[in-house]
Amino acid sequence: MAHEEAKILSLSAFDARRAGEVDPAIRDLVARRYRSFGGSSYLLYNEPLHVVRASGVFLYAQDGTPYLDAYNNVPSVGHCHPHVVEAMSRQAALLNTNTRYLYDIIYDYAERLLATYPAALGNVAFTCTGSESSDLALRIARSATGGQGIVVTRNAYHGNTTAVAAISPSTGADVPIGIDVRTVAPPAFGNKPTRKRIAQFAEDVAAAFADLKRHGIRPAAFICDSIFASDGIYADPPGFLVQAAGAARAAGALYVADEVQPGFGRTGSHMWGFQRHGVEPDLVILGKPMGNGLPVAGVVAKPDILAAFSKSSGYFNTFGGSPVAAATGLAVLEVIENEGLMENASRVGAYLSGGIRKLAATHGKISDVRGAGLYVGVEFRDAAGQPDPHTAQFVVNDLRRQHVLIGTSGTGHILKIRPPLCFSTDHADQMLAAMANALAA
Q1: Cβ neighbourhood burial of 419 (10 Å; 0-12, 13-18, 19+)
Q2: What is the residue range of 357's domain?
Q3: Under a CB-based contact definition with an 8 Å cutoff, are residues 275 and 237 in contact?
Q4: 94 and 168 together in one domain
Q5: Which of 26, 63, 306, 411 is within CB 3.0–4.6 Å of 301 for a Cys-Cys bond?
């Protein structure tokens, strides 16, 4: 096959058929989980991890063992950050109500958040989750353009509502994409991207919209996660999204940037992933990293586009943008700025990537190390050049055995490393030592 699609939730997942092989205490918890949740809730790793508390970049198991968290981007400024917890608690004790009343803190937050965007992106609508944000962005784009057609990348993930699952191919083959959705190959340009290969990505986007039109479907939006997290983590060269966004607009569609994973300074050089490419979206999707794990999310929009939607519809979310959500989101922005976390992502990300490249020089199965800031992908291929998920999964589980947590991307053959933004070079050294051990094994 020219490509394979992976079900995103099954990557690095615990196989319930192996429950008898794990520690009895863990086995009992797994049994309780399946009795309560059924079979649709996936666990990570060959041996599930029972955690009881967290702080900074560490999760702590029930026996007190610290696990270095190099996987969870949602607690963006670090687990249980004192400033965020204090702001959340203080506001919860004062006022938390629905958004159809006036209260100052939501405007303080909205103004502070919008100040990080280009001036043209002047409005924000708050939601509770990234899935809700993606769903709302679909509604806005379709209202503003009068079209229905959506173009996404081949293994994209944008959320789990019915509408958003239809534009998320990585949800799995049993969840079909919509008849008004077309997919394009991700921007896998290789170690030496050429102008021709970069142009091909834009041409693929244009061709996808042309195919929609041929089938009588008017274009609405090109939606992409600007780090291509579920496709395999493709960040370089900076600027390649300009042509793709241009192709979408030439077809009459909007360009929608999904910033749930690359946003809030994670790429190191810019606050938002699309800024790294020097392109301005029409809509931006935000998710739970904006609340450090509290359900806070939103859609940032150009005012004229949001106005077109508001004329025909409107949006109300009871606790999207509640006082507690606003206080928490504001505290996250303050931590990013006050602790220099974007600069930290740039410095530590370069250090970590450099260390992994040194390991790759002595381990032939690592075919590429790529990413930006504190979002790193490590690709494994076998001697024939084929994707090697077996080795990647071994490394993930061996790191877990050494108390380091990561995940995978693509078809399961790419390590996905995205720690909280307070990750330090000392933490990177711990991870690199564990990875060296895993590769040696």
Answers
A1: buried
A2: 49-77+340-440
A3: no
A4: yes
A5: 306
Q: Give 384's contacts (C-beta < 8 A, 6+ positions apart).
A: none
Distance (Å, whole) CA 324 – CA 106: 9
Q: Out of 288, 308, 338, pick the residue that ends a domain.
A: 338
Amino acid letter, 413: H
DSSP strands (E only) in 209-262: 219-225, 254-258
Cα gap 14→253, rounded to integer Å: 40
Residues in the chain: 441
What does the alpha-carbon distance between residue 124 and residue 110 come to, in Å, rounded to a whole number? Answer: 7
Least Cα distance to 226 among 238, 210, 209 occurs for 238
Q: Is the pTM of this model over 0.85?
A: yes
Beta strands in 199-358 (DSSP E): 219-225, 254-258, 283-286, 297-301
Residues 156 and 273 occupy one common structural domain: yes
Beta strands 404-405; 123-127: pairing state: unpaired
229 in any annotated domain = yes
Q: What is the mean pLDDT of each run of 10 residues along the chain (441 residues)?
A: 49 67 78 78 83 97 96 97 98 94 96 98 96 97 97 95 94 87 92 85 97 98 96 95 97 98 96 97 97 96 94 87 97 98 98 97 91 97 93 96 95 95 98 96 91
* pLDDT for the residue numbered 4: 45
Distance from C-alpha of 426 to C-alpha of 441, rounded to nearest angstrom:
23
Residue with tokens 């504190």: 374
CA–CA gap between residue 108 and residue 276 (Å, rounded): 26
Label residues 143-167 b or e (16+ Cβ within 10 Å = b).
Answer: bbbebbbbbbbbbbbbbbbebbbbb
Tokens of 304: 């004229």
| Tokens at 42, concatenated | 């996936």
Classify residue 431 by its DSSP letter. Answer: H
State both tokens at 335: 């931590």
Instruction: Give CA–CA dist 363/296, Å, rounded.
Output: 41
The domain total for the chain is: 2
- For residue 264 the two structure tokens come to 């809030």
